[in-house]
Amino acid sequence: MDGGDQEGRQGKDWDLDFCTIPFQDRYILYRPRRHLAFIGNQALVDHVRNRRAGRPGPAHPEADRFLASAGFWAADLECTPLPPAEDIRPTQAVLLMTNHCNLRCVYCYANAGAESRSVQMPWPVAQAVIDTMLANARRPGAASPALTFHGGGEPTVHWETLVRATQYAKNGDARTRVSMSSNGVWSDRQRKFICQHFDNVSLSMDGIAPVQDRQRPRRNGGGSYQAVMESIAALDEAGIDYGIRMTVLPDVVGHLAEGVRLICEKTRARAIQIEPTFTSSRGQYADITGEFADAFADRFLEAWKLARSAGRHIYYSGARPWVIAPMFCMAPLQAMVATADGRLVTCFEVFSEQSPMAGLFTVGRVSGGRVTYDRAALRRFVAAQQRRREACRDCFCYWHCCGDCATRRPDGHAATQGRCRATRKITLGLLLDYIEEGGGVWQGLREQRLVSAEVCSGESGPAATPATDARKKPAP
Hints:
globular, 19 strands, eleven-stranded mixed β-sheet
């Protein structure tokens, strides 16, 4: 798929982001920072380019009326700038509890449970991070505190410290919201505590039983599907907010829609995140192939249609046209992420010094009951992400993908052709759906929707394509 023609910002009369994305024998005209898209012919593209550059050209009053009614010439939405590293005072704490795990998932990025050195977060580290979070939350105008458990392993394996941390944070500030990313293989005692004390859970669950049991086996080789479904039933009964995170491998991509259908029918999960695998084996990061990228994108869009019809929100992290952001992930600036061995890091996947990216992603320490940021290291990390992002300036996903995840693109754009391919293809599919739903024009910033028609008949002048030219899929 063509990555799109991203015009520069050299317009004489209008300084706006404008992309033209080839589609069949026409183009999607896209204003990413207006959440505006429609399909037009070459003449309409030329007309817009001439007007932007202040060049003389043929008069097309019908096209001009259409562009004006769609709000095409409105100013770009501002992208919120990144705060200075010196101003970072996170009120969200993320504790990467352990590298132990009760499962042996075939694609585990951390090779959890099999590392040569055991790492478990000691209580003084957890306490220091929570104390700092609570102190930051007491500052004037600060957000309420939030505590999240994550890790290179399963956080519930380090159960006593998890319980102690939850109670300590809640006692320190009753507003504290507690959440966790987990595999959902819990004991009855753990289910009861989680349902009583947690506000949100993200569950890793890969779909139908044969896929789940094959990709996410227990330590002894047994399946995990039944245990996860029992935990989901407990969360549903307790009314706990939770989402499901699915990982797709090349040999099971054909079962993706079936897995999403099961989740929609058997659970009350409102959000489903679906990601292609980003490891070649346990503990080894790798880009996906172009063939898998295409298959994943096609099956994702199929599953997206199914989930939308069931009233569920389904998403893939790289394709998010509703986002205008300065960086792919704001965790480095909005969360205080602490590893079990006392590092402050910029990513939930950098679980300890055993992580291959620990050096680049380390921005502080937790020691002696104190949390200390290395502000210079944080500035360097953010600057590196911004430089890498600029390599994507000619892509129509620039404002949404924002250079992609730092762990998915550690070596820059060339190393991630497969994932970038999937991101562009899914984003294109979503735009087409939004255009279809909007009657020919996606206006994500307006509640009212324009009904598009041909602005000028024939191929000799500018035309916006009616909705019948877009693929039929439901959209928000």
